C-alpha cells in the first residue's frame, strides 16, 4: 500500500525531540531525517492477534535476529486447505502484519476463500533497504518448509489443516512486488520448476494485488490520472518510496522496481508459477500493471488479469470507495477460484 488518505488535522508527534533536517516525508506516514532517524505516525492502529469469525490466529517469531514474524490465520474447516503466504503493502517503508486493516482483510479472506494464511511482517526501508524484504520472504518460506518437514507439536494446530502441495504467494502493492520477486528468485536457480528448492512445499501460483512497480519513463495513468480521493497512491509518494527503498544510487529502472527494464532478467528465462494479477481501474499503477501482465503473457507465462471497476489502490484494505465492499468480495471470490482450480 502507499500514500494513505488521512485527516489533515491528524498530527502525531512520535518523538518530541527535533532531529533536524527532514530529507524525505510522505505526509502522515513517514518522515526521514538527515541524521538517519525515522518517524512513522501510527495512522492505522496495530491490533493484537485474536480469534474472530471462526478464524483462529496466532503470531509466531520467524527470526529473532531480524525481528521478522508471521501472523497465522486458520479458518474452521475440516478438510486440508491451501497455504497462502501473504506480504502486506506500504511502499516497503510502512505497514505491519498487525495493522487493523490487514487483520480484518486477511481473516475474512481465510474464512471465505478457505485457506490458511501466513502474513509476513518483514523489515522496512529505509532502515533496511531492498533486498531485505525479499530475504525475509525467502526466510519465511524456509521456516514454513522446516515446520512442514519436522511437524513440531506447537504448530500442529495449523500444520494439520495445511496442504503443503498447494502453496501460493500473495501480497498487495509493495507486498505483491515482494511475492513476485520471491517467486522469481525461487525460479532463477536452474531448477526444472518454480519453487523446487522448498520441497515438500509446492508453489502453485502467485496472487499479485495492485503490484507496486515503477520505471523512469512515465505511463499514461501515472502522468494524466486525476487525483482520486478513493485511491491510496500518488505519483509523488510512489517516487519517494522508491528513493527510500531501492539500493543507494539506483534509478527506478532497477530490476526490483522495473522488471521489464533493460537490466532485468528476461521474463522468458524465469520459471514462474501461474499468476493472477488484480488491477484497480482508478490506480495510477493501472497501465504499468497491465503492461506487466502483457509481458508475462508474451513470455509464455500463465497469467490471469482481474480488473476492479471504480476503485483505486488498496481499496480492499482501506475501504475508501463506495464500491470497496462489493469489489473486495469480488476479489475474494477470484482468489478462492484461483487457489482451488
UniProtKB/TrEMBL annotation:
InterPro entries: AB_hydrolase_3, AB_hydrolase_fold, Carboxylest/Gibb_receptor, Lipase_GDXG_put_SER_AS. It holds the Pfam family Abhydrolase_3. Transmembrane segments: none annotated. Signal peptide: none annotated. Residues 84-316 form the Alpha/beta hydrolase fold-3 domain. The active site is at 173. Belongs to the 'GDXG' lipolytic enzyme family. This is Carboxyesterase 17. It comes from Hibiscus trionum.
Amino acid at each position: 500500500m502507499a500514500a494513505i488518505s488521512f485527516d489533515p488535522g491528524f498530527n502525531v508527534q512520535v518523538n518530541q525531540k527535533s532531529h533536524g533536517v527532514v530529507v524525505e516525508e510522505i505526509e502522515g506516514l513517514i518522515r526521514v531525517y538527515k541524521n538517519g532517524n525515522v518517524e512513522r505516525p501510527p495512522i492505522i492502529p496495530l491490533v493484537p492477534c485474536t480469534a474472530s469469525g471462526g478464524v483462529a490466529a496466532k503470531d509466531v517469531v520467524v527470526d529473532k535476529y531480524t525481528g521478522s514474524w508471521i501472523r497465522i490465520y486458520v479458518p474452521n474447516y475440516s478438510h486440508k486447505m491451501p497455504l497462502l503466504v501473504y506480504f502486506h503493502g506500504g511502499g516497503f517503508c510502512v505497514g505491519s502484519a498487525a495493522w487493523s486493516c490487514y487483520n480484518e482483510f486477511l481473516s475474512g479472506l481465510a474464512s471465505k476463500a478457505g485457506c490458511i494464511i501466513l502474513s509476513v511482517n518483514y523489515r522496512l526501508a529505509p532502515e533496511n533497504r531492498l533486498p531485505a524484504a525479499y530475504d525475509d520472504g525467502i526466510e519465511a518460506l524456509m521456516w514454513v518448509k522446516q515446520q512442514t518437514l519436522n511437524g513440531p507439536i506447537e504448530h500442529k494446530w495449523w500444520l494439520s489443516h495445511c496442504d503443503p502441495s498447494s502453496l501460493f504467494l500473495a501480497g498487495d502493492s509493495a507486498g505483491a512486488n515482494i511475492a513476485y520477486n520471491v517467486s522469481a528468485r525461487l525460479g532463477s536457480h536452474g531448477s526444472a520448476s518454480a519453487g523446487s528448492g522448498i520441497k515438500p512445499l509446492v508453489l502453485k501460483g502467485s496472487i499479485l494485488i495492485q503490484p507496486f512497480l515503477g520505471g523512469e519513463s512515465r505511463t499514461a495513468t501515472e502522468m494524466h490520472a486525476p487525483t482520486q480521493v478513493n485511491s491510496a497512491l500518488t505519483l509523488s509518494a510512489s517516487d519517494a518510496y522508491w528513493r527510500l527503498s531501492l539500493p543507494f544510487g539506483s534509478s527506478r529502472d532497477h530490476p526490483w522496481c522495473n522488471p521489464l527494464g533493460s537490466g532485468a532478467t528476461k521474463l522468458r528465462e524465469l520459471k514462474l508459477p501461474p499468476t493472477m494479477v488484480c488491477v484497480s481501474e482508478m490506480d495510477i499503477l493501472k497501465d504499468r500493471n497491465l503492461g506487466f501482465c502483457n509481458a508475462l503473457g508474451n513470455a509464455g507465462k500463465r497469467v490471469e488479469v482481474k480488473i476492479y471497476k471504480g476503485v483505486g489502490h488498496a481499496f480492499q484494505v482501506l475501504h475508501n470507495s463506495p464500491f470497496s465492499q462489493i469489489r473486495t468480495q469480488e476479489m475474494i471470490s477470484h482468489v478462492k477460484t484461483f487457489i482451488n482450480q
